[in-house]
Batch of 4 targets.
Target 1
Amino acid sequence: VANPRVAKDGVMEATNEIYFVSFDNQSIDFGEVNAGHKHMLMFGVGVDSLTNKTIQPSDANLAEGAALGPQTPSMHWGWYNGYVFLKMDGMVDTDADNTPDTRMEVHIGKDFNFNNVALEIHTDALEEDVAVNINVDFAKAFEGVDLSKDFTTHTGDFPALAKQIIGNFANSFAKN
């Protein structure tokens, strides 16, 4: 999640932060926002092009546990290709017997696959913590994809599939 921001009456409150989200790390603290009604939550899916090419997991100035720091498994392809924005691995059924039989690997990165998400949240931020719960429907990422045939992309080897999945994924978010 890149550069989250909230909007109130057309005024943007933004951060220039990147957060690593996984099944093990599903909660993000965006920090403080000004009190008042918030209309929209916006964020990027991926790493912006400047950061994607200039920050490396080995950079000494990254704090321990930083989103762009070393991860296991790695979320960085190297200085030329940058970071993986979306990584989904699993098994798919390729022979229609309702039993997953083939490894699926979806690893999407590259600057042109960065997407922005805008969600109406209509939440009042007062003097206390405000939580906005966002649901992600991972199945939406695969809408229009025939997983019996198209189940592997590392972006460069199947850019059309990568573009379709990351575009679908950007539309899989909804306020709870």
Target 2
Amino acid sequence: MTTVSGLEVGRPVEGVFAVRSKERRLTRRGDPFLSLTLADATGAVPAVVFDEPDFFATRFEAGDRVRVTGDVITRGGRPVVRVRHLRPARDEAAPEALLPRSHRDPDELFGFVLHLADEVGDPGLRATLGTLTGDDELAAAWRTVPCTRSGHHAYLGGLVEHTVGVAALCQTLCTWHPRLDADLLLAAALVHDIGYVRCWRLGATVEPTDEGRMLGHLTIGQDIVGAAAGRAGLAADRRRALLHAVALHHGPLPG
């Protein structure tokens, strides 16, 4: 079975892929064709359907799994899969099998999150972190979802991997600059992107949830962290400082 990473120009293609995007276009002569993005756990590649595009267009939608046969051509200076035949393949591959994933064990990475949370000395901040990590549903999503859809850490387990990386850097920074509020900085590093747990819907592709698309991970993160801080009894000034870090970690608000 062909994978995206194994594609070679001039070679045949046969494999199961997720359809990340689907668009009907016209050639320069005005003939219709389908422009697709096909993906699996090893990467993504553009694809085209020139033969009977309107027939094939009725057989699948973006986000579906499809079995493709065809070959690899060069188009616009880059490799493109020319699809000869395509059919639905919902029963031939589990959706998550077509998503890229971290090379590191998410459970092991979450263990580092728990360890770093225990390094926070402030009782209120530590209790807030414990409330978050002790929420089984939240923790499962934290270990699973990507950090972004197509940017950094855009793979299963990406969020927890990014969380550990940022928190470890902040912990090291505090040893160099002892005047920093180490407890607040470490706690903020651990939760700064936690809003992503409600931003993504995972299937054969990663799609934004309505909440993620409309509110974004900063607003969602404030909601999650604020609720946990309330349950943990975090003092108002510390709660405000922690939420400030979540809300503004991408920079000051405009205006």
Target 3
Amino acid sequence: MTSIRRITGMITDHHQLLRLQSWLSPSFPIGAFSYSHGLEYAVEAGLVHDRVTLIDWLDADLRHGSGRNEAIILVAALNAEGDEFREIVELAGASFSTRELALESLSQGQAFLQMVQKAWPHEELNCLPGPPTLAIALAIACKAHGIDAEASLHLHLQAWLANLISAAVRLVPIGQTDAQLAQAELEDVVIEVAAMAMKASIEDLGSAAVMVDWTSMQHETQYTRLFRS
């Protein structure tokens, strides 16, 4: 039997670490590269045009928008069972402000679970009460494989940011150095949002990132597009 030892909240089980790294890697085949979360229109409108404005945009979304809600839903789903879990799945699927943001998360969530079930099969991955968002899919996989909640939360937020920064590299464009500088500068925000989510409840869901919602709506009718959201 694989032993699990936790020190100051860190995973020391090698299988857990390797699975999280695989699942949250940019190469995990869930189509993440095809979504910009409204960032494509933000660049078109001149709202994001360099590393500084990109960091400001992502900071606001992580603290006050979809990133914050993703964190709260992930923690809630990891801690819920039975009817409470089914309610969280339904709430997560209905929590998006635009059609494209819903498509972005639900399509990735479905692809995520399908791939995990093929490569790391587990009977609990089949017990799904409804279409999963990406956060819900990650929660199900982590629960099935006994992966530490706090570690999955931090790495999920980091991967969420990395995908949008990668989109900015292609859209703004910014170089790879600026991309890594942005990722590094947002580390403290990831830690702060994760700490908030660990203490929050589902009643704390809400968004004040109005511009992200607006750019997502505008993206639906944007004439030339590289991304699906």
Target 4
Amino acid sequence: MNPIIPDWPAPAAIRAACSTREGGISQGRFAGLNIGRSSGDDSDNVSENRRLLFAALKLPQTPDWIHQVHGSRVVRVPHEPAEPDADAAWTDRPGVVCAVQAADCLPVLFCDRDATVVAAAHAGWRGLSGGVLENTVAALPVPPSRLIAWLGPAIGPDAFEVGDDVRNAFVAVDADAAKNFRPTGTPGKHRADLFALARQRLAVAGVTQVHGGGICTYSDPARFYSFRRDGICGRMVATIWIAR
């Protein structure tokens, strides 16, 4: 397996990684390191993939999973009951692992300059337009100016075709978002840049240190799962925690 380690100026106590589909034991359309239990893959294969990945990343404990619903709710973890409906999780407890799954949607990791908090957000277009990143920033008990964000792999701007409804959802909140959509030549169709839209939202929320972005899941089938490309497929996971 070949996880992506964020290249960002995080404090030494911060640990973060994003899996790819490389490695693992899943077969067929899930071939590789599928982490997603709800993907339709064999549950034993997913369990073994998770075990292999967590051992390779040397996670201090199993991630505090959330049940992602393409919304904008943010929860603090550990959480009871487990796996709440949410699309972002944060913690200030060392050793607690925040995690989000994705297969085209944009995973965004956060930490602060003093390594006191971390967060992981799942930002598909619905969550992104609905404010999941702003809500994550607002939930963290540190000033936005102290935060550092990293944008993981997602469907790129040359592959992400959307309709007027998606464009309108962003422009209704911020007219300047229009610059992040390009016409395809087909009436009512546009190419959307999730990375640029996320950077724009984070800037408005006061987060100026934003790194990563630009790795396209759709265009690299050997390395990434992509729901838009393949339909039924596996999931990658982005993780972050404060080392004990």
